[in-house]
Design brief:
98 residues, mainly alpha, Helix Hairpins, 2 helices, 93% helix, 0% strand, rod-shaped
Length: 98
Amino acid sequence: MRQTALRRKIQQIQERISVLRAEVVVLNEQIAVLDEEVEELRVRAVVAETPIATKEHAEAARHAALAHRARSTATETLVNLEHERDTLLESVVLEVPT
């Protein structure tokens, strides 16, 4: 691959990495709130022993699980992109004339 194309590709990957890192930060904050809400609703469901309280807990738990999955996917994608970027950076370094 030509140097210009490699550098452009590295820049695009780095931009995606930056966006994903910001996304993971937001997801971490959301997960902290959701996990706290799930725990509160779990306790409420146990104490209230009503179908509505149980349903609210189950719904909150589903939302939290989705957020955990989204974070996991974003983190996995981030690791893959970082690996791809590092591989491309190595090829840029190897192609630099001495």
